Amino acid sequence: MPADLFPAFTSHWIDTPDGRFFARAGGAEDAPPLVLLHGFPQTHACWHRIAPALARTHRVICLDLKGYGWSAAPAGDPAHEAYSKRQMGREVVAVMERLGHVRFGLVGHDRGARVGYRLALDEPGRIDRLALLDILPTVSQWRKMDREPGAYPHWRFLAQAAPTPEREIGRAPIPYYEDLLRIWTGDGTLDAFSPGALDLYRQSWNVPERIHASCEDYRAGAGPDRAADEVDLAQGRRLAGPVLVLVADRFVGRDGLDPVRQAWTGTFAPEGTEYEIVPSGHFVAEENPQATLAVLERFLGS
């Protein structure tokens, strides 16, 4: 790993019953613990522009989720439970416990945010502050896609039965994933991404087991993740606060904050949830790290 991506951070390989996980940790060991969870199609490297600053006040753990980066990428199962956000949340808990943290703050982007809110719903005593970056609830996302079949086509494509998407992506994985990055950035280029981070992303994209894992992630989104949301919604369950929802004005927040607030208020957001919008494409921590960091520092320190 390029040394300048995470200065003063240490590398950790953490063995759990569900496989080996990779994480980078920085900040004082007795500072409040904070785990940062990346999204698709990235790795822990997406945090390199804001993690060092957060480590001034927190013990920051940047984790590669299962199937991504350098963490284990086991095969899926017929029900796609292995890559459900419930199971991935349990794995985050196991990793954090092995690093000595039973209760912690969590900042998640994209798929990492879905792991984060599922973990917070399932085990509310684990999370003391929850920041969700540029997502709507999974159940809301699927309902929108049911109304608008052309919305978010990668969700349906990746959730197809194996090996259809794996085979198609495998023909040219790096161009496929790079095109997604371009489409989701604010300026339609890769300019926002540092060469070191892109190198790490490409390493992960080129591995067949990780291509399969990312598809399993989305198959779980169409199956057990959506089902878990539906159950909690029917039971009226809410996240415990404090909660921050931060969105990009050129992605989830492109229609403003009102639809975002309505989606979360109508599902899992507790009273007092904070909502913020920043000028950016989807990859807020890399495209606009200054604004993203400012919002996170205020929320985590309040």
Automatic annotation (TrEMBL):
Q: Name one GO molecular function term.
A: hydrolase activity
Which Pfam families would you find in this protein's record?
Abhydrolase_1
Q: Which SUPFAM superfamilies match?
A: alpha/beta-Hydrolases
- Top-level division of the source organism's lineage: Bacteria
Enumerate the Gene3D superfamilies for this protein: alpha/beta hydrolase (3.40.50.1820)
Domain AB hydrolase-1, chain residue ranges per copy: 32-289
Q: Does the keyword Hydrolase apply?
A: yes
**Keywords associated with the record:** Hydrolase
For this protein, the record's PANTHER family field holds:
EPOXIDE HYDROLASE (PTHR43329)
Put simply, this protein is called Alpha/beta hydrolase
State the organism of origin: Methylobacterium terrae
